[in-house]
Design brief:
The complex is a heterodimer of chains A (415) and B (331).
Chain A: H1 2-35, H2 41-65, H3 73-87, E1 88-89, E2 101-102, H4 105-127, H5 132-152, H6 154-157, E3 163-164, E4 170-172, E5 205-207, H7 212-235, H8 237-247, H9 249-254, H10 259-285, E6 287-288, H11 295-308, H12 313-345, H13 360-366, H14 368-382, H15 391-414
Antiparallel strand pairs in A: 1-2, 3-6, 4-5
Helix pairs in contact in A: 2-7, 2-10, 2-11, 2-12, 3-4, 3-5, 3-10, 4-10, 7-8, 8-10, 11-12, 12-13
Chain B: H1 3-25, H2 27-58, H3 65-80, H4 92-121, H5 130-151, E1 156-157, E2 169-172, E3 175-178, H6 179-201, H7 203-213, H8 215-220, H9 225-251, E4 253-254, H10 258-273, H11 278-298, H12 304-318
Antiparallel strand pairs in B: 1-4, 2-3
Classes of the chains: A mainly alpha (415), B mainly alpha (331).
Chain lengths: 415, 331
């Protein structure tokens, strides 16, 4: 009886967070348009943040559900992004293939997903027999090789010049309508989309053409789908198998779980989310460069997952948003905040450059790295389980600990 | 053995045969590259030892270790600034500075590393396994941040105080080498030998081995686990600090993110030799240095990283215990 009650409470908290997130996602564009007087800059930021949320949800499947440490997650992100970039830009025209390919974004989303998953299987198949830590190291190596390859094969990937001019997604024109909004969301641009049927006026279409609002709507829908998929996976037979493997691989195998296939599925599904996010990333920036996929990206996503609360989808989403906010808004604005604070407090001397002192603004700007590191260490020390740990798991662990203690006491009493 | 295993061995064999042919056809060029490789490898070995010791004892990939290495070079450069050193030729002051800077920097770095362990890793000893990994990443950012605030993004000049110039270089059989190359290799060998003696002959070394093997059992035998782990970080940082100094003395410049790349490669070396295995890390470091040098000159330096990490993946897939690893892959 008490247990049921507990379970309901767990469900309640997560559902409350989902509700808040959904409401925020719906209200955010209107509020930010209103606050900034019609500027879409905040919405563009949010649309970028969405990429990271997708990545964190995907990595959570690998790290949080199945307990496999993946230090090269950015590699799959890169694979997804490059897949979209190659098949939806003029890049292949200057490659040894000499022929441009322009496939629509919606098909490439799925292709990017499957290609990334395919690479996940290719990498995972030989390595998942090994124990967890070795997997971490193999993925680390893979994560270093992929961006390096895109540097070294400029005839295909453009190398250091990156791939630019990537196609924007397009939709049939009947999807846009009066509800598409006023001038600031004017997204109807007939003919600019690469729709082969457009020329015949058989299927008129409009292109996203870098409109942040369109991308924002798209990423919210993608995240929504991803959350539903991952939630269902978590509750499925496969999800339970992942948890069993995470807790005790030998016991799971003894219970009849095929550990290699199950781990491989976690790896491939995690990679497919990354490929998905990669295609979106290629579309939103219309530029894919090898610099965007180095080790630091894998590390950032891992930090989002662990900090948010491994294994808990809501926690991971919140973690991704918090880290994105800290890295892209809080830290860059810190310098000017410090400067104006010094001015209001009367320490204007701090703001001028004297000798070795570069001025408060420059000094704080230099300290960004340091502050980010300190934030990571502090949060981990204060909440080793993450900001929003998975309550189910927490209870399981607590329960097991209490049981162990009780049996120890019993044994002690008997002796 | 599967077909893939044979494929791996065939590729390795082919690479060795190609290198051997190269060695026979152009022996001097080959030896020249080997000397570069040995000097680089010696530095990787020193850093790799810290990774392997920490991993062996608490199964943590200590991402901050590479930055401890870089910081050693930064602090070394600062300390050398106090001496009236002569960069154009080797003076008595240089010798004194050199003899002093090694122990001082090594001890400072050891102190810093122990503090890091005390602050960021020890409180998380019973936390989920990934928590200390994240604090290690955080500490790495903190150290890089300190160096960035200290000297900014540009690379820092490290005083060139080793004997150099025409008198301290030689060409033997067409192979050119300098005093620096010899110095790097000899210092590294001395340090590794001291470490080996320490680990195998002293009581604390024995405690470290016992803790690495089975922490609970070691604790039951009366070993102070916290002290032993702290000692591991202490020694790891002694070697990393020395490695940073040697790096500075050899290349004469250092950059706040030097440790990141060097750390990754050193970690690869540790895995290559068998993670947790001390002689393995030393040999792995040397081999990775050699492989990097051969790859630089025979394949092209832009492929070196791909080669190194490709080898890492190959070794883990086909020989998960590393070259010398004795540990069973399952645990």
């Amino acid at each position: 009886m008490a247990r049921l009650h507990l379970r309901e409470r767990i469900r309640d908290r997560d559902q409350a967070i989902y509700g808040i997130l959904l409401l925020a996602a719906l209200l955010f564009p209107m509020v930010s348009l209103f606050v900034s007087g019609g500027s879409t800059a905040y919405i563009a930021q949010a649309a970028h943040a969405g990429t990271w949320v997708l990545l964190a949800i995907g990595l959570n499947v690998v790290v949080g559900f199945a307990g496999l440490l993946d230090l090269g997650y950015a590699a799959f992100f890169a694979i997804g992004a490059y897949t979209y970039a190659l098949f939806a830009s003029a890049q292949l025209g200057s490659s040894p293939l000499h022929h441009n390919i322009h496939l629509p974004f919606w098909i490439m989303l799925f292709i990017g997903m499957f290609v990334a998953a395919g690479f996940g299987v290719l990498l995972g198949f030989p390595t998942l027999r090994l124990r967890g830590d070795y997997l971490a190291i193999v993925t680390l190596g893979f994560g270093e090789i992929v961006p390096q390859l895109s540097y070294n094969l400029p005839q295909w990937t453009g190398g250091i010049n990156a791939i630019g001019g990537i196609d924007q997604p397009w939709l049939p024109a009947w999807i846009t309508g009066p509800w598409a909004g006023a001038d600031n969301v004017a997204i109807i641009q007939n003919g600019s989309c690469r729709n082969p049927l457009d020329q015949t006026h058989f299927l008129p279409c409009f292109s996203f053409s870098f409109d942040p609002v369109a991308f924002y709507v798209l990423i919210v829908i993608l995240i929504f789908i991803a959350v539903i998929l991952v939630n269902n996976l978590y509750r499925s037979r496969l999800g339970r198998a992942w948890m069993a493997i995470r807790e005790d691989e030998v016991a799971a195998a003894a219970m009849g779980i095929n550990t290699v296939t199950t781990k491989l599925l976690a790896f491939a599904i995690g990679a497919s989310f990354s490929g998905f996010a990669g295609a979106y990333y290629g579309a939103i920036f219309s530029l894919v460069s090898p610099d965007d996929f180095f080790f630091i990206v894998s590390i950032t996503v891992l930090v989002m997952v662990v900090l948010g609360g491994m294994g808990n989808i809501t926690g991971v989403i919140v973690g991704a948003l918090v880290i994105y906010f800290v890295l892209n808004t809080l830290l860059p604005s810190l310098a000017s905040t410090a400067e104006s604070l010094a001015n209001t407090l009367g320490f204007t001397g701090l703001n001028t450059q004297q000798g070795d002192w570069p001025g408060l603004y420059a000094e704080v700007q230099r300290m960004q790295f340091l502050i980010f590191g300190l934030i990571l260490v502090l949060i981990m020390l204060l909440r080793p389980q993450g900001l929003f740990p998975s309550r189910v798991r927490e209870q399981e662990l607590k329960h097991a600990a209490v049981q162990e203690e009780a049996s120890a006491v019993e044994e002690g009493a008997r002796a | 053995m599967s077909i893939a295993d044979y494929g791996f061995y065939i590729i390795c064999g082919a690479a060795i045969v190609l290198l051997a042919t190269e060695a026979v056809v152009h022996p001097t060029a080959f030896l020249q590259v080997t000397i570069f490789g040995l000097a680089d490898g010696a530095m990787y070995a020193l850093v790799a030892l810290g990774y392997t010791m920490v991993y062996g004892i608490i199964e943590l990939i200590n991402f901050a270790h590479g930055d401890v290495f870089t910081m050693g070079a930064y602090i070394g450069a600062a300390i050398l600034g106090f001496f009236a050193i002569d960069e154009s030729n080797f003076s008595a002051v240089n010798l004194i500075a050199l003899l002093l800077v090694f122990p001082v920097v090594m001890l400072i770095m050891a102190g810093i590393n122990i503090t890091i362990e005390r602050v960021a890793y020890r409180p998380l000893r019973n936390a989920p396994r990934l928590a200390p990994l994240i604090t290690a990443i955080g500490m790495s950012f903190v150290l890089e941040g300190i160096m960035f605030v200290w000297h900014g993004p540009a690379s820092v000049h490290f005083p060139d105080i080793l004997p150099h110039g025409a008198a301290f270089q030689a060409t033997i059989g067409g192979v050119f080498f300098t005093f620096k190359d010899v110095f790097v290799v000899v210092t590294a060998v001395i340090l590794v030998a001291l470490l080996a003696i320490f680990i195998n002959r002293t009581k604390l070394g024995k405690a470290m081995r016992a803790t690495a093997q089975d922490r609970d059992a070691a604790q039951l035998m009366g070993i102070d686990i916290n002290r032993t782990i702290a000692a591991t970080f202490f020694i790891g940082a002694l070697l990393a600090g020395a490695g940073g100094l040697i790096w500075g003395l050899y290349f004469n410049n250092v950059f706040y993110q030097t440790g990141f790349r060097t750390g990754l490669i050193a970690f690869t070396s540790a895995v290559f030799g068998g993670i947790g295995n001390i002689p393995g890390a030393a040999i792995g470091g040397l081999l990775i240095g050699l492989i990097a040098a051969y790859s630089d000159s025979y394949i092209g330096s832009k492929w070196t990283e791909v080669v190194i990490f490709g080898i890492l993946i190959g070794v883990l897939v086909f020989r998960p215990t590393g070259l010398l690893g004795m540990r069973v892959p399952e645990k």
